[in-house]
Write a structure and sequence with these properties.
11 helices; 4-stranded antiparallel beta sheet; elongated; 17% strand; alpha+beta
């Protein structure tokens, strides 16, 4: 079960302030998967789609089902606002595939792992990211009975591997196509749940700390005492402060 206590969520936010986007995504994933006991390497090895499902589930636990999304139409520039269901995404991306995916056609047989976050991060730093990713993820490749090195796979086989990887882990690339209500054209946009969730968490944490400041000033309570209050009781006390 993901963290839901205010003090724990605040600790995750505080730790993420000095991190880059990748570091914040990892912190959020650690919060979403306490069952892994803080094992960062295990998290980084998970397929990207599994991480996305975990982050959607965390978002649902912290802030509810409904997600407000704003997007500019790529055709006419209109400001589009719509809702998404975090629960639907969490359930739809939560499939657990086989550890190895196999393709076999035209004399080729290839087995490979679906890329994890660590694979994509390492490949992005390489001079040739595609070759680096193949080297990390291809377990073995055979053509007409003869073994072939991952970096020697022809372009057609590489494309087939990419297609099979996407089919095995569709949540690795969450792309939306939204029809504009003004012009009717569709706009494609990637939904980066880690960035979206961090933005929400940052706003929530700053609002909560302001509440702590106001209640501490008014009543002399400590931060732990204020955070131990339910959101409903905190709001009630804040209303009383405003009435004074």
């Amino acid at each position: 079960m993901a963290i839901t206590q205010a003090v724990d969520v605040l600790a995750t936010w505080e730790s993420g302030l000095a991190q880059d986007p990748a570091g914040r995504a990892l912190l959020l994933h650690l919060a979403a998967r306490p069952d892994l006991g803080g094992d960062q390497q295990a998290l980084l090895a998970l397929p990207v789609g599994e991480r996305e499902a975990d982050l959607f589930a965390l978002r649902r636990a912290l802030f509810g089902e409904r997600m407000q999304v704003r997007l500019d139409c790529s055709a006419c520039g209109a400001d589009m606002e719509f809702e998404l269901d975090a629960g639907d995404f969490a359930r739809g991306l939560a499939g657990r595939g086989e550890p190895l995916v196999r393709i076999a056609e035209d004399g080729w047989e290839v087995r490979f792992r679906v890329p994890g976050v660590a694979d994509l991060t390492a490949a992005a730093r390489a001079a040739d990211p595609r070759r680096a990713l193949l080297a990390r993820c291809v377990a073995d490749a055979v053509h007409d009975g003869q073994p072939v090195a991952a970096d020697a796979l022809p372009a057609a086989v590489q494309r087939r591997i990419a297609e099979a990887a996407q089919a095995a882990d569709p949540g690795g690339d969450v792309t939306l196509t939204v029809a504009c209500p003004d012009c009717g054209k569709g706009t494609r946009a990637e939904l980066d749940i880690a960035s979206y969730l961090w933005t929400e968490l940052d706003a929530w944490a700053r609002d909560l700390l302001l509440d702590v400041h106001l209640l501490a000033t008014a009543y002399g309570w400590s931060e732990p005492e204020i955070l131990a209050l339910s959101p409903l009781r905190r709001r009630y006390y804040l209303e009383l402060c405003a009435d004074v």
